[in-house]
Amino acid sequence: PAFSLFIFTIARDPLRIIILIAGAFFWLVSLLLSSLIWFIAVKASDPQDEQLQRGLLIFGVMFSVLLQEAFRFLYYKLLRKAIEGLVALSEDGCSPISIQQMAYVAGVGFGLMSGAFSMINLLADALGPGTVGIHGDSQLYFLTSAFMTMVLIFLHTFWGILFFHGCEHRRWWEIVAVVIMHLTVSGLSFCNPLYVGSLVPSYLLMVAAAAWAYLLSGGSAQNLRRFLLCKC
């Protein structure tokens, strides 16, 4: 999905490519910091205490989500300054890219890097040792992981639109809604290996976030109908 979004909506515009790469870098830095905190916490605790280690894992996931959203906010502030600079340098006093377009591209950047790391971890598990499901566990691990990666890529894209819109119009409840959805989707991963318990709610949230982002971007039911019917 990220590759398709990049090819059809971003690849032809050098400015969008720069914003995409910068967004991916911001997500990567947030992951690095959260991983460092979690690593220190694990090393400083008792590795034999399974309940404590699970608690640290939950803490690490929740902290990582909050840190990602904090970096999303920092990236919004950076792009807002960039727009002011572009307007000052342009001859007609207009920015070559709108804040809505920046929000979309930044969201794709977050999703692209998130999906890349998810696939790296998945491929690392695929190298072995062992065979998935050999002890009676579900054999759908790789398939469900791929679907979960896809939903996270799309969600980051929609969250970027919602988050930037909330910052731009000072509608802080939209920002809070993004954080809550992100925490919910990440928390649902603890339902595994009950994959239905994590995939179905995540896709329902993705549909809701997509509809919300579409409406905030100026879309309407009439426009959607004309698009589906291939009418100009």
Word description of this protein:
The chain is mainly α and 232 residues long. It has one domain (1-229). The protein has eight helices and no strands. It has helices spanning 2-9, 14-43, 50-89, 99-126, 141-168, 172-188, 195-216, 221-228. Helix 3 (50-89) runs antiparallel to helix 4. It is globular, with a radius of gyration of 20 Å. The mean pLDDT is 83.
Question: Secondary structure elements and their pairing?
Answer:
Blueprint: H1 2-9, H2 14-43, H3 50-89, H4 99-126, H5 141-168, H6 172-188, H7 195-216, H8 221-228
Helix pairs in contact: 1-4, 2-3, 2-4, 3-4, 3-6, 4-5, 5-6, 5-7, 6-7
In brief:
This protein has helices spanning 2-9, 14-43, 50-89, 99-126, 141-168, 172-188, 195-216, 221-228.
Largest sheet: none
Distance between the termini: 26 Å
Share of helix, binned: over 70%
Radius of gyration: 20 Å
User: Which class best fits the helix and strand makeup?
Assistant: mainly alpha
**Mean pLDDT across every amino acid position:** 83
- Principal-axes geometry comes out as globular
Total count of helical runs of at least 4 residues? 8
The tally of beta strands, per DSSP, is: 0
Q: How many individual domains?
A: 1
Low-confidence parts: none
**In percent terms, what proportion of residues is strand?**
under 5%
Function: Potential subunit of the gamma-secretase complex, an endoprotease complex that catalyzes the intramembrane cleavage of integral proteins such as Notch receptors.
Protein name: Gamma-secretase subunit APH-1
Subunit structure: Component of the gamma-secretase complex.
Main location: membrane
